[in-house]
Design brief:
The chain is α+β, with helices and mostly antiparallel strands. It is 34% helix and 17% strand. It has helices spanning 9-18, 33-36, 38-48, 101-115, 134-142, 152-156, 198-213, 247-250, 253-262, 294-315, and strands spanning 79-88, 124-128, 168-172, 177-181, 187-194, 220-221, 225-226, 239-245, 265-268, 281-286. Strands 2-3-4-5-1-8-10-9 form an eight-stranded antiparallel β-sheet. Strand 6 (220-221) and strand 7 (225-226) form a beta hairpin. The longest helix has 22 residues, at 294-315. It is globular and about 55 Å long. The relative contact order is 0.18. The structure holds adenosine-5'-diphosphate, D-arginine and magnesium ion. Adenosine-5'-diphosphate binds next to strand 1 and strand 8.
């Protein structure tokens, strides 16, 4: 039974009221807000996830097999690195604006426990943000492994309260698997590596999230799928991205963005959303996360990135 929280409409739209450059400008302060304020959330969900109608139901979890996805760039001409992430929320807890300081601490303890069981290539160590050296934090942020604190959108959504209490990062020995605790979502499971081997990165993420699923009960809605703080991450919650250089294609920004949109891809800057491309490196990923299984979302990204690389080759 999802506990009732006293979220208000203002709690949902506060960020969009403060940050007019927002894309959607709305977050769910607790899982129940998606039903309480369905009239405002459903049209936004339908628009962002390209046609996931209020009568549609998100499919059951289906990861499939990473081995179905060949290396996107075996000759290493275009792709700098590949990353696949998903989000999970722990059942029984609200989202950031309604979390108490105690909640943050309890969530971190709950999530930390199963991390100790991670083994083989996933084995690593957990670091609570409040006990980390600032230089170490900066090194991990610069490497794209740790979230940047003080995100202006999360701040305006009351998602940075009690910072850094309850926030932390699990990182494996080879820095190819990380878990973020209580950044934007309760849990982000992230696999990444240099190059374009999407299948291997995706498999690494699957093992990680399935390992957590043995110990934790996640917030999931029969219609919306996995529940997350931001409606853009609902459903399968997968964002599969490449850091990629496409100099010829990107030289005509309008055509570049149009081709990306045609393949349901989203273009971000090198340091993630709201950033610019540095050295011509773009973060390009699947945009849709609802109405597709995990496998289908990754397949959509694989097909789209392959098409962009093909178009780049045709330009040369
Ligand atoms: P998310 O939706 O996963 O939170 P963000 O846009 O907030 O993504 O970016 C989070 C971090 O992930 C940023 O530091 C960004 O540079 C990094 N990142 C995204 N895609 C890749 C990639 N393919 N390779 C390396 N780092 C990446
Ligand atoms: N501030 C929100 C974010 C949209 C999607 N990105 C997330 N959830 N990190 C906006 O409307 O821009
Ligand atoms: Mg982010």
């Amino acid at each position: 039974m999802t506990p009732k929280y006293c979220s208000t409409l203002l709690d949902c739209i506060r960020s969009g009221l403060c940050r007019h450059e927002s894309g959607v400008g709305i977050y769910a302060p607790d899982p129940g807000a998606y039903k309480t304020f369905a009239e405002i959330f459903d049209p936004i969900i339908e628009s962002y996830h390209t046609g996931f109608k209020h009568t549609d139901k998100h499919p059951a979890t289906c990861f499939g097999y990473g081995s179905d996805f060949p290396n996107l760039d075996p000759e290493q001409k275009f792709i700098v690195s590949t990353r696949v992430r998903c989000a999970r929320s722990v059942e029984g807890f609200p989202f950031n604006p309604c979390l108490t300081k105690r909640n943050y601490k309890d969530l971190e303890c709950l999530i930390k426990k199963p991390l100790r069981a991670l083994c083989n290539e996933h084995a690593g160590s957990y670091h609570t943000l409040g006990c980390m050296d600032s230089d170490d934090i900066q090194k991990l942020v610069d490497a794209g492994l740790l979230f940047k604190g003080k995100n202006r959108f999360l701040k305006s959504a009351n998602a940075l309260r009690y910072w850094p209490t309850g926030r932390g990062i699990f990182i494996n020995k080879t820095c190819t698997f990380v878990i973020w605790v209580n950044e934007e979502d309760h849990i982000r499971v992230i696999a990444l590596e240099k190059g374009g081997d999407l299948g291997r990165v995706y498999e690494r993420m699957i093992v990680g999230v399935e390992s957590l699923a043995h110990s934790l009960k996640f917030s999931r809605d029969a219609r919306l799928g996995n529940l997350t703080f931001c409606p853009t991450n609902l459903g399968c919650t997968i964002r599969a991205s490449v850091h990629i250089k496409l100099p010829l294609l990107a030289s005509n920004r309008r055509n570049f963005l149009e081709l990306a949109k045609k393949h349901h891809l989203q273009v971000r800057g090198t340091l993630g959303e709201y950033s610019q491309a540095l050295g011509g490196i773009y973060d390009i990923s699947n945009k849709r996360r609802m109405g597709l299984t995990e496998y289908e979302a990754v397949a959509e990204m694989h097909k789209g990135i392959s098409a962009l690389i093909e178009a780049e080759c045709e330009e040369s």
